Amino acid sequence: MNTMEGLDPAAEMLQLSERYRQMSDGELLVLSGQSSELTDIAQHCLASEISRRGLKSQTEELPAATAPPPPSDSPDDEDRALVEICTVWSLSDALQLQTLLDRAGIPFFMGPEKATGVDTVTSNFADGVSVQVMHIGLPWARQALTNYMPVNEPEAKPEREVDELPVRCPKCHSTEVIFERLIAEQKGSSPQQYEWTCDSCGHHWKDDGIAKEE
């Protein structure tokens, strides 16, 4: 049942996902009672849709849609292995991404809880929530991501400016340094220099005033 001859596994997964999304709750629950007659991919897509809607299958237990398939060397299991496609950092970005993946008919899993819908995510978006899809759907997921425009990405921490580094004594490396005076640059002489004295060891030196990271 639901065997789609002539289709590769990726196309089968996407078509089944879209078919189940268009079915009513009652139709899904009836179909769940016949899950043993479905292909492995069909069972997983059906379980994902039932879980996404918060429904409970009536007669037969479906494969858990919120957990990745067990490891195996078979090609089918490799196709269904979960791959991270991005990290979302806010509820609004997660909803935006969910809409794009839903339109593409791609089942997804958010956070360590492997939630199949934003409304069931229990992780804190502010800490970043990983989004995964089955390996077989990765090409379509990447295509959907081209339209993803996150607005709450964390800003990259700027590197410390060199001149913000503390001045350290070259002898004892203490930061208890006293600025003595600026030696003005003169024509034909070396660039201006600064005179310093270490309040810890008493060392006196001159440099160009640019603190260097140890």
Description:
- The protein is of the alpha+beta class and 214 residues long.
- The protein has helices at 9-22, 25-32, 40-53, 75-80, 91-103, 138-145; strands at residues 82-88, 108-110, 129-134, 177-183, 193-198, 204-207.
- The termini are far apart.
- Mean pLDDT is 77; it is low at 59-74.
Write down the Rg. 30 Å
What's the overall average pLDDT, rounded? 77
CATH class of the largest domain: Alpha Beta
Give the number of DSSP strands: 6
| Measured distance between first and last alpha carbons | 68 Å
General shape: rod-shaped
Indicate how many domains the architecture comprises.
Answer: 3
Q: How large is the count of helical segments?
A: 6
SSE series? HHHHEHEEHEEE
> Which structural class matches the secondary elements?
alpha+beta
Quick summary of this structure?
By secondary structure, the chain is of the alpha+beta class. It has 3 domains: 1-65, no CATH class; 70-156, Hypothetical protein rpa1041 (Alpha-Beta Plaits); 162-207, Single Sheet (N-terminal domain of TfIIb).
Topology:
Elements: H1 9-22, H2 25-32, H3 40-53, H4 75-80, E1 82-88, H5 91-103, E2 108-110, E3 129-134, H6 138-145, E4 177-183, E5 193-198, E6 204-207
Antiparallel strand pairs: 1-3, 2-3, 4-5, 5-6
Helix pairs in contact: 1-3, 2-3
